[in-house]
Amino acid sequence: MPISWLLPPHFSPTAQILFWGTLLLYWRGLRAGARPGFGRALSFMLGAVLMYAVAQTRFDYYSQYMFFMHRLQHLGLHHLGPFLLALAQPQAVLAAGLPAAWRARPLPAPLKRAGRWLYLALQNPLVAPLLFVGLIAFWLTPSLHFDAMLNLDLYWLMNWSMALDGLLFWFWAFERGRNGAAPRFGYGVRLLVLVLIAPPQIVIGSRIALSDQELFDVYAVCGRAWPLSPIVDQQIGGLVTWIPAAMMSVLGMLVVLAGLLRHSRNAATRPRYTEIVQ
Amino acid sequence: MRQLKASLAFIAMLLLGLATACSRDEGFHAKSIAGLMPPLEFSLTSDEGNAASAQDTTGKIRLLFFGYTSCPDICPVTLGRLGAVIQGLPEERREQVRVLFVSVDPQRDSVAKLHAYVDYFGDQVIGLRGPEPALRKLAQRYRTTFGYGAPDETGFYEVSHSSGIYVFDGSGAARLLFRSDDPLAAMQDDLRQLLDEAG
């Protein structure tokens, strides 16, 4: 594989800093004594590399000029990459990797409050699934999709919004909370949300895959990366939106169920408050 | 409830920002690309073998189209249709319009071949060619690409390319995007309107 495959068509300094910065923090965290375990470290690496690979290599070129490659890119940015990162729960390792001076200095209170407010506004059981499915539907609206593919700024906005929402969503779904403390949202609610996001994705994906009309003619207008029938391109793209994307819900539910199981097992072995009092 | 309101407000703000980001020209049949695409700029070779740039045709409405002379369908049909659109304009107006046909198949499209090809489609068509890197740069500038299929037993290979026609006004600003199958009357109407603007 020639080295040119590693070069993105559009270099993003922000994405580069985020990717290498996060890797550096994780590595520093491991050196500082954090022990996440092999599985979680592997999941972290796979997730980070996957998100980087679909956004900042030649993959991004193909994503701009092939509908199904674009769908694969979003599968990586919005589903699989953030899923693997959230599965790894790297927060503790990353925090351990921060320079001691930074760790000792807490964020200013207003900034912390604003961050918390924004997070809760976006990531609550009502808005999180709406945002997750809504963004997919939004960017797959043919006229908007057309503009996003014609204008580089809109294209960036599309990919960043997908990546950030993916991270927010899967971290929210898999959040384990502080040691011993209950997670912010109950397991039942999170399972329900994971169930709810599947059907709309199935509808969006199947409608694209089964349509006999060319819905996204921007790829014909802008030229494809290689000669491929528009309808075949659209069918594969629809299938990618439909099947793997919806399957992620099932995988996500397994992860949450495993968390629930562990939680109840811990709760059973831990001496209850009443027992201590007696 | 406060959380919900706050998040709805946030989403509304996002959508509003997006809607204003893609404001469009009113009154044209075709899709406006004003503000979406950069102004016309290239440095290639013309079908007469001379260096060619966007400045050579400043003041004229330019219709940029990517293709190749061995193209079996889209290119000849599109060039023919554009020819018909231009022929439908009053004679003194035709001079104010140029079709820029950029060949993305430099291996097969020599200067002579390109010249013979564009000549067939009328005086308003200028053929442009260049080395692949220059073509890639131009294609990327207009968010388009091209690719080569595998050659068959006779050595013929297909080229995937943009089917859109990028319309630039006299100053070189990107204005409209024609689809190759837009109705002739609609394209003509849009061209008239652009020509009227220039006076």
Q: Can you describe this structure?
A:
The complex is a heterodimer of chains A (278) and B (199). Chain A contains 15 helices and no strands. Chain A has 278 residues and is mainly α. The longest helix of chain A has 40 residues. Chain B contains six helices and ten strands, in the order H-E-E-E-E-H-H-E-H-E-H-E-E-E-E-H. In chain B, the strands form two sheets. Chain B has an eight-stranded mixed β-sheet with strand order 1-10-9-4-5-6-2-3. Chain B is globular, with a radius of gyration of 19 Å. Chains A and B meet through helix 3, helix 7, helix 8, helix 9 and helix 10 of A and helix 1, strand 7 and strand 8 of B.
Summing up helix and strand content along with how strands pair, one would put the structural category of chain A as mainly alpha
Subunit organisation of the chains: heterodimer
Overall pLDDT level of chain A: 90
Low-pLDDT segments, ≥5 res of chain A: 273-278
Share of β-strand residues of chain A: under 5%
Compute the average pLDDT of chain B: 88
Q: Write the element-wise H/E pattern of chain A from the N-terminal end onward.
A: HHHHHHHHHHHHHHH
Q: Report the C-alpha radius of gyration of chain A, rounded.
A: 21 Å
Secondary structure tally, helices of chain B: 6
Q: Tell me which protein chains meet in the greatest interface and how many residues each side has.
A: A-B, 33 and 33 residues
Q: Biggest β-sheet of chain B: count, sense, barrel? A: 8 strands, mixed
The spatial strand order of the largest sheet of chain B comes to: 1-10-9-4-5-6-2-3
Q: What share of residues are in beta strands of chain B?
A: 15-25%
What's the SSE pattern of chain B? HEEEEHHEHEHEEEEH
Terminal-residue CA separation of chain A? 68 Å
